[in-house]
Amino acid sequence: MSNKxxxxxxxxxxxxxxxxxxxxxxxxxxxxxxxxxxxxxxxxGKSSMANAIAGHPAYEITSGSVKxxxxxxxxxxxxxxxxxxxxxxxxxxxxxxxVSVTAFMRSAMKARHGDSxxxxxxxxxxxxxxxxxxxxxxxFAERFVNDGFSGGEKKRFEILQMAMLxxxxxxxxxxxxxxxxxxxxxxxxGVNAIAGDxxxxxxxxxxxxxxxxxxxxxxxVLMDGKIVQSGGPELAHKLEDxxxxxxxxxxxxx
Amino acid sequence: MSTMNxxxxxxxxxxxxxxxxxxxxxxxxxxKQAWETYSSLPLPDRVKHLxxxxxxxxxxxxxxxxxxxxxxxxxxxxxxxxxxxxxxxxELEEAAESHADLLQQHLGSLVGPDFDxxxxxNFAAARLGWVLIIPDNAEFEAPIHLRRSTNGxxxxxxxxxxxxxxxxxxxxxxxxxxSGVHGQINSVVEVIAHDAARVKIATTVDLPDxxxxxxxxxxxxxxxxxxxxxxxxxxxxxxxxxxxxxLAGRGASSRWSGLLLGDKExxxxxxxxxxxxxGESFSDLLxxxxxxxxxxxxxxxxxxxxxxxxxxxxYQENRNLLLSETAHVESIPELEIVNDDVKCSHGVTVGPLExxxxxxxxxxxxxxxxxxxxxxxxxxxxxxxxxxxxxxxxGREALLNKxxxxxxxxx
Lengths: 254, 411
What we know:
The complex is a heterodimer.
Chain A: E1 6-17, E2 20-31, E3 35-39, H1 46-54, E4 59-68, E5 71-72, H2 78-83, E6 86-89, E7 96-100, H3 101-113, H4 117-133, E8 144-145, H5 151-165, E9 169-173, H6 181-194, E10 200-205, E11 218-223, E12 226-231, H7 234-242, H8 245-253
Parallel strand pairs in A: 3-10, 3-11, 6-9, 9-10
Antiparallel strand pairs in A: 1-2, 1-4, 4-5, 7-8, 11-12
Helix pairs in contact in A: 3-4, 4-5, 5-6
Chain B: E1 7-17, H1 26-40, E2 69-78, H2 80-84, E3 88-91, H3 92-98, H4 100-106, H5 117-125, E4 128-134, E5 144-149, E6 153-163, E7 168-176, E8 183-193, E9 198-206, E10 211-221, E11 226-235, E12 238-247, E13 253-262, E14 267-276, E15 282-291, E16 296-305, E17 312-322, E18 328-337, E19 342-351, H6 355-362, H7 368-384, H8 392-403
Parallel strand pairs in B: 4-6, 5-7, 6-8, 7-9, 8-10, 9-11, 10-12, 11-13, 12-14, 13-15, 14-16, 15-17, 16-18, 17-19
Antiparallel strand pairs in B: 1-2, 2-5, 3-4
Helix pairs in contact in B: 1-5, 6-7, 7-8
C-alpha cells in the first residue's frame, strides 16, 4: 500500500499482571488494510497484549503509548476504546445467563447508533446478514450469550459481533483454538469478509492453522514479552516446520 | 392487564375499630380467642433461628391495639373467564356469613391462631381479606389480580384460597403502598389445593421504604398437584416472609422461584420450607438475591422429608450478588430427611458481579452501569420467566424500574 494510514500504533508497551511484567517493550504499527499475526509459544505475552490494549482491569500498562486512529487509547476506559473502534475477539468469552444474543447485540449497537426505529430496522438487517455470514441458525438469536455454547459456537459468536460492530481495529485472541476444520473455515470466511481495506486485524495465535485461511501481510513472533522476529507470511510456515526453539536459540545467541 | 369485562370486586378503604364487641358472627368467638392467645404469647424469641435476623418488635402494632384503627385497602380483579368458570372471590366478612361451613373448616387450618404470636394477632385483627374459591375442574388462563395496601397504621389481612380438584388457576397477590405513608402490613395466606389442581401464584412485595411486611403463607397440596409460586421482593423497609408448602399427596409438585433486589437500608428475611409427607413428590426452589447499599438479606430454607415419603426429589438453590461492600447476606440451608430413598441437593453462592462479565460488555462499547443492569436483569430472568402468563411483562417492568433506580418508591 502506498498511502499508509496507521490505525493502531503501539510504542514501547510495558504491561504487568499482578506485579509481573509480561510485556517488556512492544512496538507495532497496524496500517489500514493490513492483516497482522502475532505468534508465540504459550506464556509469551500474546493474550496479555490483546487484553491490555482492550482495557482489561487485571492488566496494568506501566509505560509506552497506544494510539487508535491517531487518538490516545490509554486515556480511554474499556468502553471508550470499543466506541473508538477497537474490538477484541475473546479467547474465552464470558457466559451471560438470562441475556439473549439479540438483546446483547442490540445494547452494543444502541451504544453506537442510539435507539430509534431506523436503527432498529438496520440492526435487524445487519443481524440477519451476520447470521448468514457465520452460517448460524436463527434460533441462536434467542439463546443466552455464550451460555452452554460449544467452543466453536463461542468463536463464531465473537466473529458475528465483529461483523456487527465493524471495528477499525480487530484483535482476534486465539480465535482458531478449539475449532474443528469446518468451524475454522466458517470463522475464517467471516474474518476475511470483515477485515478489508478500511480496517486492520491482528490475529493472536499459537498455531498457524488460521493463517492458512486468513492470509496475513505480516507475521510477528512474540517471546518473553518482546517481538523477536517480524516477517511476511513465510515466517508462519517456518514456525510451523521448525517450532519456536530456533528463535529461542537466536535470542540466547544475541 | 385489561380491565374490560373484569369484575372489580372491591376498591375501598375500610376502617375497623377494636375491640370487637359489635361483632356477632361465629368468627367473633374465634377472634376473641385468638386475641387472648396473642395477648398471652410473648414476642418470638430471638434465639429461635427463624427470628435470629429480624427484631420482632418492628411488627408489633405501633399503637395500642385496643384503640388502633386497622386500615387498609383491597382491590381484586376477577377476569371474566374466571367468573364464567364459577370462581368466587368473596370478602372475608361476607364469606363468614355466606360460606360459614367452608370457613369453619378451612380458615386457620394451615395458619391458625396458635401458629405463633403475629399469626395469632392476624387471626384476631384481620378484617379485610378474601376467600377465593375455584371449583373443581375450572380452568382459565388470565390471572386473578389481588392488591393490598395500607393507608397508614397497621393493616392485618388474610387470604384463603381453595382450589378444587383438577382446577387450574393463576393468582397475582400484590402488596403495594403509597410512598410517604408509614405503615405495617401483617398478612396470612392459606392455600389449599386439592388433587390434580394446577396453581400458579405470584407474590409481589413493592412497599415504600417506611412500610414493613410480616407475611406467613402456608400451602397444602394434594395428590398430583402442581404448585408454581413466584416471589418478587422489589421494595420494603423491612419484610419478613415465612413461606411453606406441605406436599401432602403422592406425586405432588411444588416449585418456588423468588427474587430480591434490595437497596438502601432495606431488610428482607425470607424463610422457605418444603415439607414432603407423601412419596414421589417433587420440590424445587430458586432464590436469586442482589443487594445494593446497606441492604440485608437473610434466607433460611428447609427441606423436610418425612419417614414415609420415599422416592422424593427436593432441590434448593440460593444465589446472592453483593453489589456493595456494605450489603449483607445470610443464607442457611437446612435438611431434615428421614428417608433414604430420596434425591436432594442444596446450594448457596455469595459474591460480587464478575468483573470479567462487566469487561466483556465494556469491550463491546456498553457502559458499565448499563452493563450491570443488563447482567442483573439476565440474572433474574430465570425467575421472571416463571411468572404466571399475563403477568410476566408487568413483573419484568417493575424489576427494570427498580434496576433503573426509578421505582415507585424513589429507588
